[in-house]
Amino acid sequence: MNSPASSSGGATAAAAALDAAALRADFPLLSGRPAEDPLIYLDSAATAQRPQAVIDAEIDYLVRANAAVHRGAHMLAADATELFEDARATVAGFVGAEAEQLVWTSGATAGVNLVAYAIGNATAGRGAPAGTRFALRPGDEIVVTESEHHANLIPWQELAARTGAVLRHIPVREDGTLDLDAAADLLGPRTRIVAFPHVSNVLGIVNPVDRIVALAREAGALTVLDACQSAPHLPLDLPATGVDLAVFSGHKMLGPNAIGGLYGRADVLDALPPFLTGGSMITTVTLDQAEYLPPPQRFEAGTQPVSQAIGLAAAVRYLARVGMPAVHAHESALERRMRDGLREIPGIRLLGDAEGVDRVALASFEVEGVHAHDAGQFLDSRGIAVRVGHHCAAPLHRRFGMTASVRASAALYTTDADVDAFLDAVAGIRPFFGEV
Predict the structure, then answer these.
(1) Cα separation, 337 vs 244, whole angstroms
(2) Which of 85, 95, 98, 119 is most buried, by CB atoms within 10 Å?
(3) Neighbouring residues of 185: CB distance < 8 A, sequence distance ≥ 6
(4) Using CA atoms, how far apart are residues 109 and 128, in angstroms rounded to an integer?
(5) Same fold, 8-47+323-432 and 56-319
(6) Main-chain dihedrals φ then ψ at residue 72, nearest 5 degrees
(7) Half-sphere CA count of 365, side-chain side, radius 13 A
(8) CB neighbours of residue 84 within 10 Å
(9) Among candidates 409, 356, 420, which has minimal Cα distance to 204?
(10) Regarding the domain delimited by 56-319, which CATH topology (the fold level of the hierarchy) does it fall under?
(11) Given this model, what pLDDT does residue 129 score?
(12) Comparing C-alpha atoms, which of 229, 410, 411, 237 is closest to residue 318?
């Protein structure tokens, strides 16, 4: 499912409803800086800034209701449990899901690992009989894309190594789009898992989820979606995409660190065996065996990230109040401004500069004759924070013949003036290093 289509007039109206300069007042790190130490924050794809409402929600919980959830019989524990489960329902609703379809994790990386290890446990014969549908045999195939973040690549490499499965990948074309013709040839009767990003964290391109899901369904494969770079920027209805499982990360969507979500179709979560085991995820335990709770608690062993979950719920309420269509429209305008400006600067090579595709406000580029780290330091000296390196996507950079790039990524609090200052600074990089 691609980002929602809209007419240019509708997008303009939605964008007009979002005043990024006014929203900045809600973000202490952005609004409280002295004039002599300005900050243009263009690293939101790595970690987004948090509004005061998120900070307040965590502090309020810790001050008024801090207790172990799902455990104590006292009133404080009951209050904490209610807040924790209300947060689950709030975050699940934000992505179109029911509360029981959302498993709390420490982040998207933990979510992918949970799924990979659960499938490994099913392969080893653990869990309910329904879990045998996920068991892998030597020669079965796990398909990813050439554009994966390492978090949606290495867990599958490890699962393949443990089970004898074969890891294959959908190639990326020169313009950054996925080669779906190659994907159609690649997926077949041995394909068991298809894992792919909704949005590339390097290219910013919104991948055609509906087409990939259709190919996977035809092959009878399980689909796993990395929604880290879409959940903060696009209206998202995970059940409507048709994916079986999806992960997202709180700190990229205005929320706290160490919290994320694993969405799953009810029948898929019901069939998966647990990964981590221990307290809070069991019904009956003897010295010889244990029986497990249904999802989502089956996958939530041990002490839970309660304040973080409450903070993430506050973050998605903030995003919902602003309106995700307005966020997407505002950031689409920023993306066009950024990309058009970078194209005009001599010596700049944009990665994945495809035309006519949906995008989020993210651009990665190479500066001719200047290493990405040097370019990043130059921008930092002018108060502009960007990401440099391979962005946990080394194979994708290798595909484009480079080891590192500069990545600028915007969010709802980014202004036109921020983008213009960034472009002006980028234009000065090569002259500063004597490359012009």
Answers:
(1) 35
(2) 119
(3) none
(4) 25
(5) no
(6) -70, 155
(7) 29
(8) 22
(9) 409
(10) Aspartate Aminotransferase; domain 2 (3.40.640)
(11) 87
(12) 411
**β-strand partners of 223:** 194
Q: Judge: domain 8-47+323-432, CATH 3.90.1150.10.
A: yes
Residue ranges of the chain with per-residue pLDDT less than 70? 1-16
From the candidates 272, 392, 411, 423, give the one annotated as an active-site residue: 392
Q: Which residue has the tokens 């000065």?
A: 428
Length of the chain: 436
The closest of 197, 105, 92 to 149, measured between CA atoms, is 197
3-state SS, residue 310: helix
Which residue type is seen at 119? I
Boundaries of every domain in the chain: 8-47+323-432, 56-319
Tokens 């660190």 belong to residue = 257
Q: Which amino acid is at 104?
A: W
By the 8 A CB rule, do 385 and 47 touch? no
Residue 228 known to be catalytic? no
